Automatic annotation (TrEMBL):
Gene from which this protein is expressed: LOC107755572
Annotated Pfam families: DnaJ, TPR_11, TPR_8
TPR repeats: 27-60, 95-128, 209-242, 255-288, 293-326, 327-360
Keyword Cell membrane included in the entry's annotation: no
Highest taxon, organism lineage: Eukaryota
Name by which UniProt lists this protein: DnaJ homolog subfamily C member 7
Organism for this UniProt entry: Sinocyclocheilus rhinocerous
N-terminal signal peptide: 1-29
Length: 506
């Protein structure tokens, strides 16, 4: 009820003062309530009350400092950084504000900025041991960043991952470090780990171009090229200047196109063209391990069609080196080993396949390779006679006649004792080969890989008796003595078999 003009003049100032005190008191009440919830670790409610206090008194540094502390507990470090910066703008002597700003910078991976904040704290409190430790953390982050950069240039991706793991211990919220780690995990072929890191980032920031790029990179390296391209395009929408995403997108499209051209040429039977196209595709991106493994295996398939078996084996080996789980490459290489009669190597590859995939087909392939290996370690009677494995009975007889005359000891009677022994050995082998291959039962057992000695089949023979029976008819024949018949056969040997000194066939 003041009525005097003097009182009327002072009413606005008094009212303003009253309102200010009232607002300040209410704001303090909100702050105290926020503190209670903060102690209870109900940070969401604490945040709400600190926000109410700030709304009432936006120039109070401590309110921003308290809300920054709450935001840090909620892992909302960028918002906490803004509140900390606002707090020290309002009060440059607010030590806790500088400390929280430095801590936020550190958690976000901004080590240089963090160091500046911690230095400010030391100016205010020179003996602060906590901030001294934080300064050391900042220095270690800078050192790990430096080492990671050098290692990335050297393509030592394992070292980069190691450095980023160490840096992320004090800088756990740094997306930049996480993305670099994820990229290197992808380059190391550790795709699930890389995908997990990138996905964690995208859950917090769906527009992060680097994380989108890494997701695409993982898909690209797992040969899911169409999906990879979609992620690269999305990354470029978020970050139009993302050079890595642009290059990866270009490589992915080029690789897919070249691989499809090669497949088309192969299906059309244009093997030479397919070989060239697969070779060109292999030059596009050496880092794409899985796709390149498939390209090497495809080229090996073409190589086997072109009878480039050793090259095909080499390509399969390259494919396996890139992807040790690539069963198709093992199977292709094993078949090439079989075709080149490298049976031990074929058995080794088929064993690897069967250990991985115990199918009936793989078991049969392994058994066949083992059988061929066993057969290869016996005398090859077909080679001894110089005939094909599908030789007819007449071809076997003709081959025996020629080889027996060629290696008969009497033809080499004038040679050195070493030559005589060698020729006698070959003569016996020819007789042994003829004994087996001229007998249908023995030949069948031999062709199936059985050891004739283990089958109670009579393998005792006399090479001279076979020769006599073959050349001498029912009465037999002997080279012994100087009979006219013997001389005639020696002449026959000379006429049928060119002597080593002649350049003209007799």
């Amino acid at each position: 009820g003041l009525t005097s003009s003097k009182c009327d003049m002072h009413m606005p100032a008094a009212l303003l003062s009253f309102l200010f005190v009232s607002i300040r008191r209410e704001a303090e009440g909100f702050k105290e309530q926020g503190n209670v919830y903060y102690v209870k670790k109900d940070y969401a409610e604490a945040f709400n009350f600190y926000t109410k206090a700030i709304d009432l008194c936006p120039k109070n540094a401590s309110y921003y400092g308290n809300r920054a502390a709450t935001l840090m507990m909620l892992s909302r470090y960028r918002e906490a950084l803004e509140d900390s910066q606002q707090a020290v703008r309002l009060d440059d002597t607010f030590m806790k504000g500088h400390m929280r700003e430095g801590k936020c910078h550190l958690l976000l991976g901004n080590a240089m900025a963090a160091s500046r904040c911690f230095q400010k704290v030391l100016e205010l409190e020179p003996d602060n041991s906590q901030v001294q430790q934080e300064l050391k953390n900042a220095e270690s982050i800078l050192e790990f960043e430096r080492l990671a950069e050098i290692s990335f240039e050297k393509r030592d991706f394992r070292m980069v991952v190691f450095c980023m793991d160490r840096a992320l211990e004090p800088a756990s919220a740094c997306h930049r470090f996480k993305v670099l780690k994820a990229e290197c995990l992808a380059l190391l072929g550790r795709y699930p780990e890389a995908q997990s890191v990138a996905s964690d980032i995208l859950r917090m920031d769906s527009t992060n171009g680097d994380a989108l790029y890494v997701r695409g990179l993982c898909l690209y390296y797992e040969d899911c090229i169409d999906k990879a391209v979609q992620f690269f395009i999305q990354a470029l929408r978020m970050a139009p200047d993302h050079e890595k995403a642009r290059l990866a997108c270009r490589n992915a499209k080029a690789l897919k196109a070249k691989k499809e051209e090669g497949n088309k040429a192969f299906k059309e039977g244009s093997f030479e063209e397919a070989y060239v196209l697969y070779s060109e595709a292999l030059t596009i991106d050496p880092n794409n391990i899985k796709t390149n493994a498939k390209l090497y295996c495809n080229r090996a398939t073409v190589g086997s069609k072109l009878n480039k078996l050793e090259q095909a084996i080499e390509d399969c080996t390259k494919a396996i080196k890139l992807d040790e789980t690539y069963i198709k490459a093992y199977l292709r290489r094993a078949q090439c080993y079989m075709d080149t009669e490298q049976y031990e190597e074929a058995v080794r590859d088929y064993e690897k396949v069967y250990q991985t995939e115990k199918t009936k087909e793989h078991k049969n392939l392994l058994k066949n390779a083992q059988l061929e290996l066993k057969k290869s370690k016996r005398k090859d009677y077909y080679k001894v006679l110089g005939v094909d494995k599908n030789a007819t009975e007449d071809e076997i007889k003709k081959a025996y006649r020629k080889r027996a005359l060629m290696h008969h000891p009497d033809r080499h009677s004038g040679a050195s004792s070493e030559v005589q022994k060698e020729e006698e050995k070959k003569f016996k082998e020819v007789g042994e080969a003829f004994t087996v291959l001229s007998d249908p039962k023995k030949k069948s057992r031999y062709d199936s890989g059985h050891d004739l000695e283990d089958d109670d089949m009579n393998m005792d023979f006399d090479a001279n008796n076979i020769f006599k029976a073959f050349f001498g008819g029912p009465g037999g024949f002997s080279f012994e003595g100087n009979s006219c018949k013997a001389n005639l056969y020696l002449l026959l040997i000379h006429l049928l078999i060119p002597c080593s000194d002649c350049t003209v066939n007799h």
